[in-house]
Amino acid sequence: MSLRKGKTKYLLSKSIESALLAVETYNSPRKQFRAETYIVLMIIALTKLFHAYFNNNIGDKYYYKYPNGRYLRVDGQKKSWELKTCIKKYRNLDDAVNSNFDFFIKLRNRIEHSSVEQEELNYLIFGECQALLFNYETLLVRFFGNEYQLNESLAFSLQFSLLRSPEQRKASKRLLSSEMTNIRKFIDDYRSSLSDDIFNSQEFSIKLIQIPKVSNTNRSDVAIEFVNWNQLSNEDKENYERLLAIIKPKVVKQDVANGNKYSTGQVVTKVNTLVDGEFKQYDHLCLYYIFSIHPYGHEKEFMENYDTNTEYCLFDDAHNDFVFYEKWIDFIVNLLNNNLLTQEEWRRCKREEQKLNIGDYC
Fold it and tell me: For position 178, what pLDDT does the model report?
């Protein structure tokens, strides 16, 4: 797709420029705050890429408006959709790609307001950073064609060193510092919240293993090769798995209480990443009340806490609280995205203590 001069091409060029600058910054060993700067620049690149896509497909309509149709303005300028809203409006990302983008949006919000030194982030999130760049280029090509793909020199774009300098060793120690605790906890918690399929996906995080080519090497071979797992023979895959068994430390997995179950706050947070508009805790209360997901208020006088709709919810006796299944989140998202019930309707039902049959809305 060849773009003529205009706003779409301008936005696209700014997007690519921001992505290239992000990589240049990350790969500059003398730059401070490399990971922090890379994340901010890549989010700018993605946001402008979506703006270019929307401008090319729906015109100049990617701005926030008041209910009366007037534009929301900041310092006199129309406020355009930020990346999170762009992703919601696009609605066509794989789960792993969406998780990768969501991870960096939330991480950026934390590091922008943090006083810790950011160099140690490089050792925690290299895989996610590499996947972010690959996901950006995939969208770039999907939106505007192969002619706009990044330069081939970026095939192995984010560099990491085999040697550890004194600064790197200090950075590793800082991973254990109190200032870094909150950010590291967020990263660990986010990874733990993902399904195995998403976490192991290369779209969420690129996992690399370095194996020196020491025999039968053609002198014209490139120094670094990426191998497509799907194109390997069964024998090669078995050899690869054996290699991992040799180099990977043994991990003892333990059962986790309430795995794949969500508190009310977690339900609200996850729904807000998947729907337009704002879904509040009170909206969640209204929905689980009118659909009789679990007892509420005066109902508890006549029902036990265990009288829940077990397809969507159960009572956690140890914590004296209700937890919800993924199916309940899927139900709410489907309800909102397909306009099966409006906020005004479910709030009215709650006020009037009117119950609805959940089967009518599945």
Answer: 47
3-state helix, strand, coil in the chain (%, to 5): 55, 5, 40
The residue among 338, 340, 349 whose CA lies nearest residue 283 is: 349
Q: Report the Cα 238 to chain-centroid distance in Å.
A: 31
The residue extents of the domains of the chain are 7-199, 261-361
Which tokens hold the place of 146? Answer: 């192969």
CB-CB contact of 267 with 332 (8 Å): yes
Tokens of 50: 């979506």
Summarize pLDDT for 180-227 with one digit per residue, the tens: 677 777 888 888 888 888 988 888 887 665 566 655 556 555 555 556
Amino acid residing at 80 = S
> Residue 114 and residue 120: Cα distance in Å, rounded?
13
Which two tokens mark 357? 């049959």
CB 79 within 8 A of CB 71: yes
10 Å CB burial of residue 165 (0-12, 13-18, 19+) is exposed
Cβ-based neighbours of 278, under 8 Å, separated by 6 or more: 272
Residue 111 · residue 192 · CB < 8 Å: no
Query: Would you say 57 and 68 are in contact if contact means Cβ atoms under 8 Å apart?
Result: no
